[in-house]
Design goal:
The complex is a heterodimer. By secondary structure, chain A is of the alpha+beta class. Chain A contains 4 helices and 3 strands; from the N terminus they run αβααββα. By secondary structure, chain B is an alpha+beta fold. Chain B is built from 5 helices and 7 strands, in the order βααββαββββαα. In chain B, strands 1-7-6-5-4-3-2 form a 7-stranded antiparallel β-sheet, covered by helices on one side. The chains are: A alpha+beta, B alpha+beta.
Chain lengths: 97, 168
Amino acid sequence: MFAALGDETRLAIVARLSTGGPRSIAGLTEGSTVTRQAITKHLHVLAGAGLVRGVRRGRERIWELEARRLDEARQYLAEISKHWDVALESLRKFVEN
Amino acid sequence: MSTDRIEKKITLRAPRERVWRALTDSKEFGHWFGVKFDGPFVPNTPLHGVIVTTAVDAEVAQHQKPHEGKPFDIVVARIEPERLFSFRWHPFAIEPGVDYSAEPMTLIEFVLDEVAEGTLLTVSESGFDNIPLARRAKAFQANEGGWTMVVTLIEKHLAHDAQVAGQA
């Protein structure tokens, strides 16, 4: 995941999606000196690392950050999971006594 | 890994009817879980309670202490004797002053199976994907791990960009 971010252009893409929200390749290429093809290639590297994902909308693909969503959801579940571990230990103490 | 469901399995060295009572007698449930309910569990019926401290573990009780007295509302779903008990609740509904009632609930299911050592209890909680992301993100404080680093990288990058723009 961090290797995918070890590139200035990719970092710029993630930064742009992070501050500006989901956008198309055209939207990402805008105002950039990097070609559309290069952006596409970088997006696929980022997608491979689970950081972004492309959702097809009509004829174009909209790219959005995935890492934040997943990471948050996972941390949340891990937190709930811990609470259950604690609760079930209490149940064990209660019924095994 | 699913973001919608948690499942836990625990083998309890106790007979099935004992575990069943600990789960479905609302007083007994409250005793180990740390909640005081207004009445018994009735299928398809909401039940109000308040958070108290568990009576079985001093350390856990310590953690529950700050939440003591906060409302704890559930809606009992199914009660199938000595086999399945389920209810719905708002997970992590502990932020003061927040009305959780309009938000989707998660479903908690307790399933009992008899095994040689005693009773195998499977607990699952599902429906997290319906909970607003903002609520999920708020529910945990510890924002360690990958994403923090990504954010730091982005911030650094943005700061660098602003600097370059300022120089131009």
